Amino acid sequence: MYAIIRVRGSVNIKPKIKKTFELLNLASVNHMSIWPEEVANLKMLKKVENYATFGTISEKVLGEVITKKAKALTGELDVKQAIKTLASGKTIKEAGIKNCFKLNSPKKGYERKGIKKPFSIGGALGNRKDKMDELVKKMM
């Protein structure tokens, strides 16, 4: 599963990118959403890679995020059942969780070059691949 975190704000961005953020459930800075690894989702991520960071998230870290930051769609949230449902390959909606997690700013900040440079050269934007877990842990 991909975890996508919005890093930059909405000032002076194109309307198509704003619409893509709406489709990804990323309304504000430091919001995270979870999406399956599909071609359509990857195309949306390529469109917003200059304003967000993304990468694959492990089940362990996903479980921590759900226990600390998840909100139920209706009624009470059964955390263990939700984690089992996601591990079996079902969608986050079928697990009964809202697909928007409000995270804190990362402890000790983003990477050295800031939020305007890609991750490949030391910044915070774009594809992190397997290093997404480290950022999510810093933000919880």
From TrEMBL:
GO molecular function: RNA binding; structural constituent of ribosome
GO CC entries: cytosolic large ribosomal subunit
Keywords per UniProt: Ribonucleoprotein, Ribosomal protein
Pfam families assigned to the protein according to its UniProt record, in alphabetical order: Ribosomal_L30
Superkingdom as given in the UniProt entry: Archaea
Domain Large ribosomal subunit protein uL30-like ferredoxin-like fold: 2-51
Gene Ontology terms describing biological process: maturation of LSU-rRNA from tricistronic rRNA transcript (SSU-rRNA, 5.8S rRNA, LSU-rRNA)
Family that this chain belongs to: Belongs to the universal ribosomal protein uL30 family.
Designated name of the protein: 50S ribosomal protein L30
Originating species: Candidatus Iainarchaeum sp
